[in-house]
Amino acid sequence: MRLFNPCLFLSVLTVFTAGSILTSCNHGESNNKGVAGDTLKGKITISGAFALYPLTVKWAEEFEKLHPRVIVNVSAGGAGKGMTDALSKMVDLGMFSKAVSPEEQAKGAWWIAVAKDAVIPTVNANNPVLTDLKKKGLTKQKFFDIFITGNVKTWGQAVGNGSKVELQPFTRSDACGAADMWAKFLGNRKQEDLLGLGVNGDPGVADAVRRNVEGIGFNNLGFIYEMQTRKIYPGLSVIPIDINGNGIIDPDEDFYGSMDSVIKAINDGTYPSPPARDLYFVSGGKPENSLVKIFLKWILTDGQKFVNEAGYVAIKPDQIESELKNLN
């Protein structure tokens, strides 16, 4: 029984402002009989990072088409929840969107990279200085002075014009990879260092910025760009990063017009890392469940063909080879 439509989730982003999102990707009485003679059956449970959620739902759906007697349950609640659930064995796999820490490794965390994406700064589509933002962008220092020191308090200070409209930063209240990566981009800081009104989850931050004309936030790629059109969701806009710091967005820095152009910039390294990063599945120790191992091997092989379609960047062939060895 399908409990949740991931496409609808991305279309009605404003509905989900907090909490956990659960999807059962089992198709019940599906006419798709999968591979002839398929005997694979069982259940896989996954929880964690919003960043990896849309892609994991896609993988789960496609895997179930091949193996109709397999059920894959996916829930999104943040990277911290994914790690906690995985280490406690509450789920088979945790979705994780930042580097696994030495402390997590000491607790038995095992991990495998499965895709890449990026955290991108966002504003309201009716921001009062949007024209200047698009032309000039913001440097890392400006973002630092918004989210870390708080020295930049108005949009006029941000872009160098006379606007007195105050900034309203939004950050994440849940332990998550997006905030961790954004903080690392701003001088190797931690999520706890970020200023702003804390909001739960990627959908929550996107919704808060959409509702607040003075707002500034950050989101994972799949919560900024609509999957079907590959364009930015209505109500949101992207702040270009002035990577070279020359006070203007040069042509090679202007790649935010579509999801596909951003994916290309992440893939070729034009968009900085962090906040671009690898995405992982984690577990409490190396998986022993044969069904889970088959699922992960499929993700690293045939499953990679769905990565770009879902709005992510596929990992490189040499990294895939390394991760397959890690799994064996």
Q: What would your notes on this structure say?
A:
This protein is of the alpha/beta class and 328 residues long. The chain has two domains: 6-116 and 277-327, Periplasmic binding protein-like II (D-Maltodextrin-Binding Protein, domain 2, 3-Layer(aba) Sandwich), CATH 3.40.190.10; 119-267, 3-Layer(aba) Sandwich (D-Maltodextrin-Binding Protein, domain 2), CATH 3.40.190. 32% of the residues lie in helices and 20% in strands. It is built from twelve helices and ten strands. The chain has helices at residues 6-11, 53-66, 79-87, 102-106, 130-136, 140-147, 155-159, 177-185, 201-211, 259-267, 290-300, 317-327; strands at 21-24, 42-48, 70-76, 93-96, 109-124, 168-172, 197-199, 215-220, 236-238, 276-284. Strands 1, 2, 3, 4, 5, 6, 7, 8, 9 and 10 form a ten-stranded mixed beta sheet that branches. Strand 2 (42-48), helix 2 and strand 3 (70-76) form a beta-alpha-beta unit. The protein is elongated and about 70 Å long. The chain starts with 5 loop residues before the first helix and ends with a helix.
